[in-house]
Write a structure and sequence with these properties.
Keywords: Leucine-rich repeat, Repeat. This protein is mainly β. About 0% of the residues lie in helices and about 15% in strands. The strands form 2 sheets. Strands 1-2-3-4-5-6-7-8-9-10 form a 10-stranded parallel beta sheet, with no helix packed on it. A two-stranded antiparallel sheet has the order 11-12. The C terminus is likely disordered.
Length: about 250
């Protein structure tokens, strides 16, 4: 059993999970990213203390049901697979707070996601989503939703009824008109760039916008699903005025 209760087998070109890993019953973090996995052994159910499971960048066409038995999971990475749906058993993961399902084959956001009552962060970018289910408004703990690179032709109406959202990312969709978001009291950042929109979304004072017609001020840069604030302190300092000129050899 690793002392730090973590096993990282990322990038090992694994086609199956070594069974001895399932004997580490106190394991808290298991990283299996960037392999060739398309199934998991039923013995994985023994890892009932697991809180973080990374299965991104694999070949899963369906989420193995054994994952849904790991009821202490808080963070689940499923991005960059071949998932077209999620099983109803996912609702058993009632401690889940972060779910990454970006870069899959989802044409609809699975409604079972709306039953994850503690979910705070949802990454669903780079799929083929055209709408969001109305049930999503029931996720009152949800603070961040990433929907970039989908097929949304209108701003999802359900988001207008989620006052606790802090970050909305609809970059790289097909939205032509944005309704006002000024009534959302929790909103801090909206990213709407690369849409064929005719207007910028109206927002309350202090809310940052990234996209056409946004305010002229340093904006956050987006990198790999994260937002990195650009502050004046992070700008490169100008060269000192008394810097000596380099000597020219004769």
């Amino acid at each position: 059993m690793p002392v730090d209760k973590m096993v990282d087998l990322s990038g090992r070109q694994l086609r199956r999970l070594p069974l001895h890993i399932c004997s580490f019953r106190e394991l808290v973090k298991l990283y299996l990213s960037d392999n060739n996995l398309n199934h998991l052994p039923p013995e994985l159910e023994q890892l009932q203390n697991l809180q973080i499971l990374a299965l991104d960048f694999n070949n899963f066409k369906a989420l193995p049901l054994v994952v849904c038995t790991l009821k202490q999971l808080c963070i689940l990475y499923l991005g960059n697979n071949k998932l077209c749906s999620l099983p109803l058993e996912l609702r058993l993961l009632q401690n889940l707070k972060t779910l990454w399902i970006e870069s899959n084959c989802l044409q609809h956001l699975p409604e079972v996601v709306c039953e994850l009552s503690l979910l705070k962060t949802l990454h669903a970018g780079s799929n083929a989503l055209r709408t969001l289910p109305a049930q999503l408004r029931g996720l009152q703990e949800l603070r961040t939703i990433w929907l970039s690179g989908n097929l949304l032709s209108e701003f999802p109406p359900v988001l207008l009824h989620m006052p606790f959202l802090e970050v909305i990312d609809v970059d790289r969709n097909a939205i032509r008109f944005f309704p006002s978001l000024a009534h959302l009291p929790g909103l801090k950042l909206v990213i709407y760039d690369h849409n064929p929109c005719r207007n910028a979304p109206k927002v309350a004072k202090g809310v940052r916008r990234v996209g056409r017609w946004s305010e002229e001020s340093p904006e956050p840069r987006k990198r790999s699903g994260a937002v990195i604030e650009i502050t004046l302190d992070e700008r490169p300092s100008p060269p000192p005025t008394d810097k000596p000129e380099p000597e020219v050899e004769s």
